[in-house]
Amino acid sequence: MTNHTNDAPPREILLLKLGEVVLKGLNRSVFEDKLLANVSRHIRPFGRFQIYTRQSTIYVEALEERCDVDGACAACQQVFGIAAVVRALPCEKTVEAIVETARTYLAEEFAAARTFKVESKRADKRYPMNSIQLSQAVGGELADAFPDVAVDVHNPDLTVCVEIREKAAYVHGPSLEGAGGLPVGTGGKAISLLSGGIDSPVSSWMMARRGVWLEMVHFESPPYTSQQAQDKVLELAKQLVPWCGQLVVHIVPFTEIQEEIRRSCPEMYFTLIMRRFMMRLSAAVAKRVKAGALVTGESLGQVASQTMLSLGVTEAVTDLPVLRPLIGMDKVEIIRLSRRIGTYETSILPYEDCCTVFTPRHPCTRPVLAEVEAAEAALDVEALVAKALSGVKQVRIKADGTMTVRTPAGTNE
Ligand code: ATP
Ligand code: MG
């Protein structure tokens, strides 16, 4: 046996299969290094592990008995850049040891299966048997050990995988779904507009999955929006942290802007003009933190402010790319994803968002930019933006979920 020289039973290890990272060319090592660092950060709370890469697989080996492998496994399933997570048991590279390991380690899987097959892979090309010979030898013995489970090489209930690698053989059953995508931090930085709804946590997650490092902006309009609405948004951000890494939420005071719009602009443009302010303020925050794009949860045609013309009028105030990963998705698809991410139950809590505070009865769905600009001319846009920016509060949510607050005056709460 390899690293288990004494009588201690071998410890289960995690094999993380790389996703799209393997398609990278010259800069692949940049992606792999980032991924290793992200994995390491995600599993830190679960004990001391050794982490290393071999042949497009990241190995995660517990270094001490009290490591929480279940916890580490679940955490690895939330690391973008990993296509699949496999729990495996190492053993000696002999048929005998492999059969014995499969028999005991996968006993539950065998009990639930009617048919099985063995699939072998050899990363160690000096191994004396080829994959087919090894699968046949191991499969034959397992068929004897489990007479009620028949061999079916075409459509088995259970596939027993044997990987012959440098140090050891690894035996495992089915792999678990990984988060996919690219490692966070490889795709630049963006500001994501996070409301309390269903959509924006999903759009944030989708961009983080493409490797984007996010900071959040949230607009609040007290007393029209409540403290509970703000808590809900922070809770959503907290639920995104295991996927995105630590997050800063910039909370922007929006009451005065909304009241000014209501006082001075035609009702049918309320939402559009408000959304243009959201873009301006988000772009200003992006500039402060050197982010290169904005992200929203807009989906074409979902509401009046998300028609093609409305989106055009909204984004006309910024030069930054506005990324809208939900643009072509149906609500049911968005809801399905939000359940998978884990934000759905929080999103449907019934607190007011500032968007729903002053909604026009007949919003314009076919706006003309020049007309919206003319309507906006009644406002001192620059002064309103500057004032709101001076009142931004920052909430930092760390990987362990703890929060620190920085008030506009620069003091910590
Ligand atoms: P819902 O799931 O109810 O549609 P939503 O978050 O998508 O929620 P919309 O009114 O559709 O709400 O707003 C479109 C987008 O604008 C949001 O996805 C979000 O990116 C941004 N947005 C809306 N309200 C806010 C807010 N209060 N703070 C920050 N961003 C917001
Ligand atoms: Mg929406």
Walk me through this protein's architecture:
With 413 residues, the protein is an alpha/beta fold. It has three domains: 108 residues, 2-Layer Sandwich (VC0802-like), CATH 3.30.2130; 53 residues; 218 residues, 3-Layer(aba) Sandwich (Rossmann fold). The protein has 14 helices and 16 strands. The N terminus is likely disordered. The structure holds adenosine-5'-triphosphate and magnesium ion. Magnesium ion binds next to loops.
Attribute tags:
single chain; 413 residues; alpha/beta; VC0802-like; Rossmann fold; nine-stranded mixed β-sheet; seven-stranded mixed β-sheet; 16 strands; 38% helix; elongated; binds adenosine-5'-triphosphate; binds magnesium ion
CATH superfamily of the largest domain: HUPs
Strand tally = 16
Shape designation? elongated
How many helices? The count is 14
Give the low-confidence spans: 1-6
List SSEs in N-to-C order.
Answer: EHEEHEHHEHEEEEEHEHEHHEHEHHHHEE
Just name the CATH architecture of the largest domain: 3-Layer(aba) Sandwich
**Intertermini distance:** 54 Å
Overall mean pLDDT:
93
CATH class of the largest domain: Alpha Beta
Main beta sheet, described? 9 strands, mixed
Strand content: 15-25%
Task: Itemize the secondary structure elements and their pairings.
Elements: E1 13-18, H1 28-43, E2 49-54, E3 57-62, H2 69-76, E4 82-91, H3 95-105, H4 107-112, E5 115-122, H5 131-145, E6 150-151, E7 158-164, E8 169-172, E9 176-180, E10 189-193, H6 199-209, E11 213-220, H7 227-244, E12 247-253, H8 255-264, H9 270-289, E13 294-295, H10 308-315, E14 322-323, H11 331-341, H12 344-347, H13 369-376, H14 381-390, E15 393-397, E16 403-406
Parallel strand pairs: 5-6, 5-7, 10-11, 10-13, 11-12, 13-14
Antiparallel strand pairs: 1-3, 1-4, 2-3, 4-8, 4-9, 7-8, 12-15, 15-16
Helix pairs in contact: 3-5, 6-7, 6-11, 8-9, 9-10, 9-14
The structure holds adenosine-5'-triphosphate (ATP) and magnesium ion.
Adenosine-5'-triphosphate binds at residues 193-195, 197-200, 217-219, 296-298, 302-303, 353-355.
